[in-house]
């Protein structure tokens, strides 16, 4: 799996707008946003704003760096993929 | 050492709470105040009772702020309710012997532990207190429904506005408000654990609510500046709290 990053401006409805799109194998997988001074102790860190597919998560961790965020995403994808039972494809209703 | 509520300065708390939702006779008030209690002081972030415990007593909150919660995988926590002085959040342990969740303190808290046997004997003597406690439990269930609607269908701004409205009305019902404000003993992380939001989201919304002039938050003091606007933002209708008097709800 290859992971690429692309800077982007995000409208979070707050002062946090410096964002980053995370692509895995060319597909948009997650959006990270750099926290502004509005967040005092967390300013400058990266907030996991949203994840798609296997990266969808009810929790929104904060990472010290983009490297740390990518590591977490890689770890999570490995874990999630391993946990998936291999079910036969569903074709219509029984 | 055992004492009774009669000897405590906080004795009115339980009565105020119950009388906000039912009428009590003089005998019932007396019976409640004569319940034997053991007072326990806890620091913030301590458990009062834990999942799988089999308590032999109920905890009446005398002072402080308490949450009902469940721990899920990798140590994450979902808070499913906040409780204030006058509440008995584990009343259900009277009839459901094993705790299926935990109760913890969010600030320094004092609780009065009341033996189940004493509560049962009081309820046998005053059957209408059974109705009072049942009503309280049903209102607790109504709060869960509102929270569930919030988690499933309200955005972050509405969720927080709704919670602030609920907490304000409940604090006022037990006379723990001061003007238009009350002390909010929950951190942003704890609000997030209750509302399914990250600390970052909570922080953003709190700043929006302030910027929009709906609330002021200084230290622990939460002041509601625009009640009607806050109610509208949170789609808050106090009906589900089933307070006896309309004055308490509005």
Structure overview:
The complex is a heterodimer of chains A (94) and B (250). Chain A is globular, with a radius of gyration of 16 Å. Helices cover 19% and strands 32% of the residues of chain A. Chain A is an alpha+beta fold and 94 residues long. The longest helix of chain A has 18 residues. Chain A has a 5-stranded antiparallel beta sheet. In chain A, strand 1 and strand 2 form a beta hairpin. The mean pLDDT of chain B is 95. In chain B, the strands form 3 sheets. A 4-stranded antiparallel beta sheet of chain B has the order 1-2-8-4. Chain B has 2 domains: 139 residues, Jelly Rolls, CATH 2.60.120.10; 94 residues, Arc Repressor Mutant, subunit A (Orthogonal Bundle). By secondary structure, chain B is an alpha+beta fold. In chain B, strand 5 and strand 6 form a beta hairpin. The radius of gyration of chain B is 18 Å and the shape is globular. Chain B starts with a strand and ends with a helix. Chains A and B meet through loops of A and helix 7 of B.
